[in-house]
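Tutorial sheet, problem 5. The two components below are modelled jointly, 397 residues in total.
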Amino acid sequence: MNEWKVYFYLGGLRRDNVIRAWLKAESVSIAQVAAFQDKIDTLEASGPDMVPGFISDTPVAKDIYKMKIKGNKGMKQLRPMCCRGPFGSREYTILIGAIEKDRKLIPADVKERAQDNLTALIADPTRRVRERLA
Amino acid sequence: MNDLHDNLSNEFQDPEYRYAYAESFLNTKVATQIKVLREARGLTQADLGLLVGTKQSGFSRFEDVNHSSWKTDTLWKIARGLGVRVDINFETFGSLIEDKKHFNRESLLRPKFEDDPVFHEAQVPSEPAKNEVAAVSDQAVGDATILLPPESVTGLTHTFEVLQNAVVPAVRACVESWEPALKKLSKELAENAKQQDAFLVAMMQAATVQGSMLTTGVGAPAQTRLKHVPRQRRSNVITIHKRSESTQVRRRSHYGRRKQRTA
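Model answer (structure tokens):
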């Protein structure tokens, strides 16, 4: 029934959900995970026009868009990277997690790594999954 | 959507999670509705920002789902600019699933007061108002609500430019029949001083000052006042005088003529 679908890239030899692993590694608060999940749910149910400001209008690198989940004071500023598709017109795939601090993305090479993950995904379409973050 | 119900039933067991999720959706809903209503009224962020009293760059944050520090007075300012009211409810968590299910552009649209069928379904514009507008242009035009930023009303004096800047966004939100009429007028205004005066008079007639808001209405007194403003000032300045100031202008004018005659 969902018109839009959001997938997560499966990285490494164990094919882990890179975003779930990243949220755990960064010890992201449950409140921010909930806010992230809400935006994904709304995006899937209603499309990107109904979540203005969640995904950047322009790509930050070729085919790579920045997602924004603002944290309150003291919280991390989550900036996962995603792509449209790449196999359907009404889908997004979140490729890698990143944090913004002092206007700089961490890790610094996150755009290149997102592009590498996209290339790997196109070569192997099974490298992604749809699941809940929590 | 049953999937969502099942997933949230489990996730919402954690109070921190469910409150954060609900807050995020509320922020999404408010930001998206502002964007949807603004676009439906044909306004740019800069237009609505002008009415709210912020720049475009400042206003854009209100249309960002990540904006979370809402103030009720800001929401009321935005509501004024959009011609709607603000409502705040306490709801169950269960209703959030239904809200998400019906969260689309159509569900967020609201008519502005002037188009609200509850108040305006059977109303027909009064004959004098129609005639006055027709005097400016042969083409029939509808009613408009013109909102001016509070600072531009201070002193009750507006340059033509300021009024025009405030009028343009309001006109954009009006029915399309305004456009040809205004295009015709803007051409004539540039060429014909008489038409320019007529336009200014019509604008004055269409506007009745109510605090910081100019709304449609019959404005015979405004026309009367404008007569006393010297013609050279009328060409590029709209001055809304209080009665006492109007009298002062008239007196100065008489004094000037008497002085001339004496000379």
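Marking note: Strands of chain A lie at 5-11, 16-17, 65-66, 77-78, 81-84, 91-96, 99-101, 104-106, 128-129. Full credit if you identified this.
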